[in-house]
Amino acid sequence: RTSLPMRARPASNGMNRWLLVSFIGFASGIAFRSFFAFGIYFSFFLIILGILFLLIRHTNILENVGMSFLFAGIMLVSFGLGVLRFDVSDIAPPLQEYVGKNNIFTGIIVDEPDVRENHTKLTFKITNIGGTDVTRPVKTLLIAEHYPEFIYGDDVTVRGKLEMPKNFEGSDLGRVFDYVSWLKKDGIYYQMFYPKVELVEHGHGHPVKTVLFALKNALMDSVSRAVPEPHASLVGGIVFGAKHSLGEELLNAFRATGIIHIVVLSGYNVTIVAEWIGRMASFAPRAVALSLSAFGILGFALMTGAGATVVRASIMALLVLLARATGRIYEITTALLFAAFFMLLHNPHILVFDASFQLSFMATVGLIYLAPHLQKYFSLVPEKFGLRDFATATVSTQLFVLPLLLYMTGQLSIVSVPVNMLILAFIPLTMLFGFLTGVFGIASFILSLPFAFITYLLLAYELKVVEIFNALPFS
Hints:
Layout: E1 8-9, H1 14-35, H2 40-59, H3 67-89, E2 102-109, E3 114-115, E4 120-129, E5 132-144, E6 155-161, E7 168-169, E8 176-177, H4 179-184, E9 188-193, E10 196-201, H5 207-226, H6 231-240, H7 248-256, H8 267-280, H9 286-303, H10 308-326, E11 330-331, H11 332-346, H12 350-353, H13 355-369, H14 371-374, H15 387-409, H16 416-424, H17 427-443, H18 445-470
Parallel strand pairs: 1-11, 5-9
Antiparallel strand pairs: 2-4, 2-6, 3-4, 4-5, 6-10, 7-8
């Protein structure tokens, strides 16, 4: 859902119909290849067969050839391209000869540390092994101690044993979690458990990401000084996408009440950020305001780690700005398809192995097509504070993601609708005052206190709602 002042409507013309067919074919090809591998020539066969169907339809070689040949041709070509894209990305990992052996690895920390309760996860790109440079740098997941601490862009030396990740039984549902493919979607092929990590030098990351991550850490430190735990960590998840553990007990409470999406950044958070940036830039000339909004959205996406949900929402928000700049009607279905297509083109592994991409895409489809039809059934819900919109949005998204959630977790939150109605109306204010707490806290702890007090009250209310509803035996 976007509250930006832009006309948006589901696409319905003929061009968008064939665009949808092409996207379905492309995505289906990726999904097929995610489970079955018949070699790269299989994709060429499908593409050539599809082109043959299109030529027959175009040249009328066969009599009474209808639209079915056009449909089949487009589907086969796009399906084959999907298979081909996955084939190209599914490169066999190097460094097999080093697996199971202790060695000295040199490389860079290429992502923010993911701090958990008992350990820290570091994404480490190997560039040198035992003094010999590798031909292709390879990402490895390090399960490390909390201390010493490392940051993005650190050049480090790692002493330990390189291991291949293994699939495992991931839940009480008795299914095996494809951990290998889940890591591969992030380009990670190996892992190391509690190796010895030593700092060589700071400052080897991308300069833009380095600055943005440093800014986020400074804001988070500022919030932590003024707001107690677990409220400060919750601000980190809602506002900054910070990877700090809230504790398994609190996370389970958020899952049970159907409000877990506020802890990790979602498209809703990006919408709020885009709206605040647009308001703050409204004083500037139109072109300048749109440019500031675009750079703000891009910077926010990078600063928060550019997860699948945030990238999808950011692309759609940028398309809103493009539509506004060109005076065109914002076709939200077309925007969603373009966002999904370019994300799959960049990384086809996310379609099957990234739950956040799947849930975000399905939730958005629910908001586009189901929410407008549900409005009439919520006439008794007051419109004040946007409660009716929150109720409609929650039910429509829950209905669309419910089959996927039940398959993934086996868990259904009965209380998600009232909890979302009671909490989501306050999230924009929580984000605003949480951000202001961090900004003013960098300058002065005293200046941040008024904003920190309001932030604490908002968070305390939201946590209390979760606590009450989580205590219900049927939640």
